[in-house]
Amino acid sequence: MVQDRYLSECMDNKLDKTVSDVVKLLKKRNWKIASAESCTGGLVSQMITSVAGASSVFELGVCTYSDRMKHKLLGVPEEILEKYTAVSSQTAEAMVKGLYEKSGADVCISVTGIAGPDGGTEKTPVGTVYIGFRFDGKYFVRLPELWKLENKSRENIRLSAVEYAFETVLEMLTEDS
Predict the structure, then answer these.
(1) How far apart are CA 8 and CA 150, in angstroms?
(2) Which has the closest alpha carbon to 160: 83, 28, 64, 152?
(3) What angle separates helix 2-29 from helix 154-175, to the nearest 10 degrees?
(4) Weakly modelled stretches of the chain, pLDDT under 50
(5) Are strands 33-37 and 107-113 parallel, antiparallel or unpaired?
(6) Which of 50, 87, 97, 171 has its CA 20 to 30 Å from the CA of residue 32?
């Protein structure tokens, strides 16, 4: 237990620094960021707004936990949700496209997946999380292999997904400068 708390605190400190770096780089470019979240339940938005001065870069954060809200607020086609389910690359991409249409933000992030502890299947285990991005006019989706984490707690999967999202954005902002 002590070791888990230590690892969690280290991860939190690393994540705080990564998010701060992302906010600084966005400010430098005068860019905006927006998020559409499902399994992370607003954690991406929370991390951004925890940074002082984030109001100059944070455009929109929406938590669309249900399929109905993914469709209604982000325009995710019902056909995608029916054919591929909410936990799919197709849904993550549709979410991030809908987010961009609503926000116009320079950087958009969407997250959808299974944080657990229940809900996983053999085909889609707990820790299956799709993260959609829009950056520099391009859309793409990543699937970090969070089902391989040693600690598959709900909290760790959610934090790991958020950390992966911000590390990806930081990498893109750094490479693009």
Answers:
(1) 13
(2) 152
(3) 30
(4) 1-7, 9-10
(5) parallel
(6) 87
